UniProtKB/TrEMBL annotation:
The gene is nnrD. It catalyses: (6R)-NADPHX = (6S)-NADPHX; (6S)-NADHX + ADP = AMP + phosphate + NADH + H(+); (6S)-NADPHX + ADP = AMP + phosphate + NADPH + H(+); (6R)-NADHX = (6S)-NADHX. PANTHER family: ATP-DEPENDENT (S)-NAD(P)H-HYDRATE DEHYDRATASE, ATP-DEPENDENT (S)-NAD(P)H-HYDRATE DEHYDRATASE FAMILY MEMBER. Gene3D superfamilies: 3.40.1190.20, YjeF N-terminal domain. CDD domains: YXKO-related. In the N-terminal section; belongs to the NnrE/AIBP family. Belongs to the NnrE/AIBP family. This is Bifunctional NAD(P)H-hydrate repair enzyme. Keywords: ATP-binding, Isomerase, Lyase, Metal-binding, Multifunctional enzyme, NAD, NADP, Nucleotide-binding, Potassium. It comes from Massilia antarctica. InterPro entries: CARKD, Nnr, Ribokinase-like, YjeF_N_dom, YjeF_N_dom_sf. Its EC number is 4.2.1.136, 5.1.99.6. Its cofactor is Mg(2+); K(+).
Amino acid sequence: MKSLYSVAEIRSIEHALAATLPAGTLMRRAGEAATSAARDMLAGHKVLVLAGPGNNGSDALEVAANLAGPDTDAQADVTVLYFPGAAAPSVETAQALARARASKAHFAGTLPLGRDWSLIVDGLFGIGLERPLAGAMRALVDSINELGRPVLALDVPSGLDADTGAVIGPDGVAIRATRTITFIGDKPGLHTFEGRDYAGQVQLAPLGIDPGQRPPAGACLNEPALFSLHLAPRRQNSHKGSFGDVAVIGGAKGMAGAPLLAARGALFCGAGRVFVAAIDPLTAVDFAQPEIMMRDAQEFDSGDGTLVIGPGMGDSVIAMRVLFKALEGTAPLVIDADALNLIAASPDLQGRLAQRAAPAILTPHPLEAARLLGVTSSVVQGDRLAAARELASRLNAVVVLKGSGSVIANASGAVVINPTGNAGLATAGSGDVLAGICGSLLAQGWEAWEAALGAVWVHGAAADRLVAHGSGPIGLTAGELPLAARAVLNALAR
Ligand SMILES: NC(=O)C1=CN([C@@H]2O[C@H](COP(=O)(O)OP(=O)(O)OC[C@H]3O[C@@H](n4cnc5c(N)ncnc54)[C@H](O)[C@@H]3O)[C@@H](O)[C@H]2O)[C@@H](O)CC1
Ligand SMILES: Nc1ncnc2c1ncn2[C@@H]1O[C@H](COP(=O)(O)OP(=O)(O)O)[C@@H](O)[C@H]1O
Ligand SMILES: [K+]
């Protein structure tokens, strides 16, 4: 399992280890691991090392000392910008500082201009960041980001909250890294919200601590192992009834495309039969996808099939009535888009949803999640893990909080962050396709938790596959996702 540790969890691991390891051991190991990552990235010899007042700065000073070396033929020409704190440095920091000063590294007072840095090492702040970067430090971070040179961040890009992936603000700044080498355990903030943009490629350096010495983490990264129990090649002796029915309920006037996209997501990920039950039926057949059966939502009886409710559904009286009926019934549900907004506006519907025994997956984007929680979308984005956890527990459902690094949570408090997908998905209709894939996996007998994890993984990997083949991220369309998702799912099942 790819565990993700909160700052509090890292601190408690650190606390437990302090009793067993000689002082400074972890800092030296962090310095060595980061030095080797820096050497790996270094194409040239001019290195700028930014060292802050805490232990993140000590790690950086270790890197500076290692890269510059005491000998004249050391490979790197290292410049250090060191920011001592108001308090006296710790014994470890003082040792790292003495090592760096004894090396060939130059200490500068301000950012030297006109130097073509081969690599910048960011050791300003790690998990000890307490407030937004201000003054000279803020200006320095702006200048570093403008240089556009390769940056290796130590532990966490400075300015980023390791728990939430938010740049500490308001109107905050953070180092934009090419790569982040993170120590002891990986951290959620590197993988969601702004974290993916600021951390770049994430590398874990466990510092010699074996996983058995670490307590279970509160979150983890999504990976096929988490849903592989449902991945299997199809039996030859199967028929369409073996793979379930999905009915997508939605499609108010002017929004017919949304349920069709969801239906295609469901069809191409293997549901046996797929229906669109439209609020305002416009067409008897989808000529581009004649396999999809078109029905009128008011007359439709889904039997024991899976319902995907909400895409393009609107907020009419008919939409409300159909949603009420779905919540009263016992069908497995995927609840998306307008259906989420209707539920957000009705404490009665929220109560009914929470009381249901049948599985439900909710797929809100941040604004929909905010409406459900009665807060603003910036509050949701400010702590995506907490928001997803809270919604799952309040509404007794599996929740997929969408966006860069989608967060999947369940009512028992499990939280997973999805690493697949890219900004090509920031296009109308891609969420509809995701809802359809969720419904498809539910209809094929997957448990709600694994269906959500599998669908989010496959949906993101489909977008990654399209980008790898040149179809995006700019201009990627939601309609291209179902075919790519099919390829990803079949590859996984093999
Ligand atoms: N947890 C561990 O066991 C290990 C931690 N290590 C390093 O230690 C780091 C944590 O060290 P610290 O707890 O000293 O924290 P940091 O080095 O992240 O920063 C804390 C210091 O910065 C000050 N500060 C915080 N925000 C500020 C701001 N916005 N402007 C100005 N000053 C600010 C604090 O008052 C404090 O002096 C980790 O990120 C990692 O790099 C590694 O050496 C390996 C082992
Ligand atoms: N920048 C991004 N990086 C990764 N995934 C993204 C990004 N932007 C959007 N997505 C994904 O695309 C989908 C968009 O869904 P949604 O916002 O509901 O759009 P729509 O309602 O138009 O279909 C979600 O699965 C979301 O996680
Ligand atoms: K840092």
